[in-house]
Description:
By secondary structure, the chain is α/β, with parallel strands linked by helices. The protein has five helices and nine strands, in the order βββαββββαααβαβ. It has helices at residues 36-44, 92-101, 112-119, 134-146, 164-181; strands spanning 2-10, 13-21, 25-29, 51-56, 59-63, 68-69, 77-80, 152-156, 185-189. A five-stranded antiparallel beta sheet has the order 2-1-4-5-6, covered by helices on one side. Strand 8 (152-156), helix 5 (164-181) and strand 9 form a beta-alpha-beta unit. Helix 2 packs parallel to helix 4 (134-146) and helix 4 (134-146) runs parallel beside helix 5 (164-181). The chain is globular and about 50 Å long. It starts with a strand and ends in a 5-residue tail after the last strand. The model has no long low-confidence stretch (mean pLDDT 89).
Amino acid sequence: MISVAVKLERHDFSLDVxxxxxxxxxxxxxxxxxxxxxxxxxxxxxxxPDEGRIVLGDxxxxxxxxxxxxxxxxxxxxxVFQDAQxxxxxxxxxxxxxxxxxxxxxxxxxxxxxxxxxxxxxxxxKRRPATLSGGEKQRVAIGRAxxxxxxxxxxxxxxxxxDDQRKLEILPFxxxxxxxxxIPILYVSHSVEE
Length: 194
């Protein structure tokens, strides 16, 4: 489903990575500073490799040889960061709707009710981010990314800021996303336990 073979040079950092991932979860694991987040940024289109190719399904997203580069907003990729990055002035329902708003109606294949049920956030809909726990914020951020009906979900250390109890709370939801929405997930972590 996803194929990545890229090279990138930055000051004292050299990235040379190649991998392929199918349906389900593909994990990128390694210590801080090894380039995991850079790979996520390259796949999302937020950075350009010096050399290489990124293919999602049958779509070429990046190919330096042919100067192909699909802009980030046209890649149909959902992105969940370490920090939930919710809009503080919006309640949970509006934060969720934000992602869906930018997806053309014919491409909307994931329904809000299904996401709310799978993530167990129905009781949070009227609350603002400042009143949510870290685990609740991450579930809302995952929901917002899902409601864009992405072809790929990128999760960049989404549990890094959470304590062990919250991590145990979120991991089963990631498994349910994989199983119930059949969206491939590229999951980055420095924690072998995850």
